[in-house]
Specification:
180 residues; mainly alpha; 8 helices; flat
Length: 180
């Protein structure tokens, strides 16, 4: 039984082939522009306010929506739905369990994964979005449920708009694979 269990860890296939230089360049351009716009808004328009416009999980979203555009996890429904749903869950867990941060953290991530699965919005950076709602600083906590709208919903929507524009410039790229 142990041998069969350990055998599963060998993997079943080889590493995927390398991507072309063109694919690398377009992924870079998309990620640069997507993060640049959201970061610019954060540091030029929101810096002296109680709002924020960028969260760490957007970096992981950039990998998916600019670098792995065919992945089901990178599609618009998953990007927006996964982030917003996870943000709501994270805020709720923080508000209910902030006296037990370890429990709030674990509950936010695990519940986000379960609900993203249930709603067909699985987006791995959503787990980080939920965790940030719990472990984030005073600025994040002060937002409460507004966190799900600004920065999460608006930021993800801006990144989606840029993904739609950039990913469809090259003839060989097409985004999205599906909307709903």
């Amino acid at each position: 039984m142990l041998k069969a269990y350990l055998e599963k860890m060998k993997g079943i296939s080889k590493s995927p082939p390398a991507v072309s230089i063109e694919e690398i360049i377009w992924s870079w351009i998309g990620a640069f522009l997507g993060i640049a716009v959201v970061a610019y808004l954060n540091y030029s328009k929101f810096e002296n306010t109680d709002l924020v416009m960028i969260v760490g999980s957007f970096g992981a979203s950039a990998v998916l929506i600019y670098g792995a555009i065919k992945s089901p996890l990178a599609q618009p429904r998953n990007l927006i739905g996964g982030h917003v749903l996870s943000a709501i869950i994270g805020v709720t867990c923080y508000q209910l369990l902030n006296q037990y941060m370890w429990l709030a953290s674990a509950m936010a991530v695990a519940t986000s994964i379960a609900l993203m699965h249930a709603t067909k919005t699985l987006h791995p950076p959503g787990g980080a979005t939920a965790l940030i709602a719990v472990i984030g600083g005073e600025k994040i906590h002060a937002l409460g449920y507004l966190y799900a709208i600004i920065p999460v919903g608006v930021g993800a929507t801006i990144m989606l708009a840029i993904a739609l524009l950039i990913n469809n410039i090259p003839q060989k790229r097409r985004y999205p694979e599906f909307w709903i």
